Amino acid sequence: MAKTVLIVDDSESIREVVNFTLQNEGYDVLVGVDGQDALQYLDGRPIDIIITDLHMPNMDGLELIRKVREMDNYKHIPILFLTTESQAAKKMEAKQAGATGWIIKPFVPAKLLSAISRVLR
Amino acid sequence: MIDKFKAKFVEESLDNVNDLEEALFALENDMQSKELIERIFRAMHSLKGGGAMFGFNHLSEFTHHLENIFDQIRNNKLEVTNDLISLTFSAVDEIKYLLDKGDLTEEEDLEEFNSLMEKIQAFLHDDGAPSVSHKTSSSNAVDDNSDSKIYLISFIPRENLLQNGTNPLFLLDDLHALGDGHSIVFTHKVPPFDALVPDYNYCFWQIILSTSEPVNEIKDVFIFVEDECDLSIEEVGKGSFKLTPPIEKLIESARQANSLIKSSELKILLNKVDKKEDNKSSQKAKSGTNKQKTQLKEHKISSIRVASKKIDELVNLVSELVTTQAQLSVYAEKKGDSDILTLAENVQKLSRQLRDNAFEISLIPMQSELMRFQRLVRDLSKELGKETEFVIEGGDIELDKNIIEHLTDPLLHILRNCVDHGIETPEERVAAGKSPKGNIYFKAYYEGANVMIEVTDDGKGIDVNAIKAKAIKRGLIHETDELTQKEIMDLVFTSGFSTRDTVSDVSGRGVGMDVVRKKIAEIRGEVTIDSQVGQGTTITLRLPLTLSIIDGLLLKVGFNKYVVPISSIEKIYSLAKEQLRDSFNRVVVIDNTQIPYVDLRDVFKEEKQETTNIQMVLIRHENKRLGLLVDEVLGEHQTVVKPMGRYLQRHEVISGASVLGDGSIALVVDTNRIFQFSGGNNSGKNN
User: Fold this and answer.
1) Is the pLDDT score of B5 beyond 90?
2) For the domain B2-123, what is the CATH code?
3) Of 2.30.30.100, 3.40.50.2020, 3.40.1390.10, 2.40.50.180, which CATH number belongs to B549-678?
4) What is the pLDDT of residues B125-182, one digit of tens each?
5) Which of B2, B506, B541, B593 is 20 to 30 A from B103, alpha carbon to alpha carbon?
6) CATH class for domain B366-544?
7) DSSP strand E in B524-661: where?
8) Which residues of chain A neighbour B12 with C-beta distances below 8 Å?
9) List-wise, which residues carry 4-aspartylphosphate (chain A) (predicted)?
10) ipTM of the assembly?
């Protein structure tokens, strides 16, 4: 069965690139425009991985990660975050919130896929 | 493929820039507003991230520094000043310029760019603009000499490893993908069952790995978990790793003692082995690891990206093949040789499958665009203080990517018009006796050899008289001109026409309905508009399915042959002459249902032959049905639709022509338009 990816980003173009890349790769893709929006998908349906931006309106990526880690259904799924900051501080913060790994923007599709394959197969 | 999204990025970025500008204006009046600063920061962040992704490197660099300034403001390290705001305003202008131009090449531009950059950098307290720092390559980077080395990797994760969604087994897999290895798991820390916390990790691992990859590749495997484990990677030998009895013994004793293998001990054992091994076997091992690597790569490719030109070529070749196959079938039938007939049938079957396959490859679903449309309607409604529900039907329809590309802008414009001009404000709607919430229906469906896209709103509709008055004012028509309702509606598509007196912000993007029509015409599509005052407007796009090959039914009408797309055929009847003679209004009663019909011999002015039996092909279009009278149904035909020449393009009911196996030509009937042709005297409604 195709794996389901939830992508969360407030930038439409990023969402589409990610969406396009993943769908091409045969993933089922759910799309949230921010943390708040993403929560609606976390209703018990199977989701195999979440890829989220950190800076978003309404609910940012860190809070989303924390929320997901509190949910019984999803607390163990891999969560990758997108970041332009390759500074350690931001990464640490996200990792402490419970993120599994990260993808540094800008990325090419191959990089995105390889990051996913690190944590989901 | 990034290019495909570039235009979208620019559009989105312009929205971001607008938002940025707006927030800046507000910030000028309220310099302490956290919310505004956050908004500005976010806009810049998006510009920076996206800019780098879509190849706007200057933009990305530029906004990176701006972002830093606002990051510091956010963290109370910098103050908002009037100077800063003015500078940011000029930066916004530069951003717009960069979005328009892409990366700068002109000397002059670069100068300005750099001077502005300097001004911005001067604002930053320290020069610590931590530009996207690339990880400095590790000091013990291995020389590029690809000789295989043996490493002892000790991986001791913390207990909470699993809670972050990490699967340590994947890491082991990744290591084994780098080369030959042996992993040893230590499980002595696993507590008794009743004390076991299921999502704790109690295991740790040692891996002996021989690989020709640099050590950084090994480190890379652990990149996500390096803070959650103790990791050591030690080089313990050269060549390929072989599990020899002494090493086995070492592993066994380590396991029994529950203590890690010491690299020094392993080193000694390996060196002994090494001496025995001659060069030949290490050579062999090297090719072995390489092979494994390529295997892994092959395994990973589950889809490939192909230049669309190649696909076009494939489709062309398939078209040719189908025509040739038709010739073969004709030949086989003429010969009557059963062997050849079987072969011809097989070829036909295969070429059909090949055809379907080739077309499937070239199609992409509309879905991705729909997301944009939905967003547009939502945002625009909010902006204009309207309530709008956007209903999508048929989003899974697939279209040729070229068509989709050409379709987006016109559709965006149409939707903008719907929200801006069509849907009324809630108050107006209630006053008109409608529900306060307006509806926009987006419907896509296949129809024969076409894809139809209908955008319908239940707004105020278009007032024919208003159009006429405006057109006269604009000098598009003369006051005394007599125009049908349809002709008046059509004026909307004339260039330089706008039904609103004041050009609003929304539709003031320089695109009018005339451009919509032009763009749709470029992909050989049509736009029609239909509107009822007070009830709403429907804009219908009729697009060619690029399927230049269709499944058709070959018909004989008079002395000529015609093709009707099978997709629009519902049933075929054989009628007795009497059934038609008794009917009037060109309606025939079959199974207690009245079915209107047209005689194709009349439509195409073919000679009528006297036959006792006549066949009727029942076609369906939306919920309408129509019978087509023909002399004979000849059979299925894979139809390669060739466009008609320039002079025949406007023909009402013919959409193309196809070469048959015997070299003769069949005309392809446009089933949608034949309804219009027959319309008027009959509603043609089912039931």
Assistant:
1) no
2) 1.20.120.160
3) 2.40.50.180
4) 544 444 433 333 333 333 344 578 888 888 888 888 888 888 888 888 888 888 888 8
5) B506
6) alpha beta
7) 526-532, 536-544, 549-557, 560-565, 569-576, 587-590, 593-599, 613-621, 624-630, 632-640, 654-659
8) 11-13
9) 53
10) 0.81
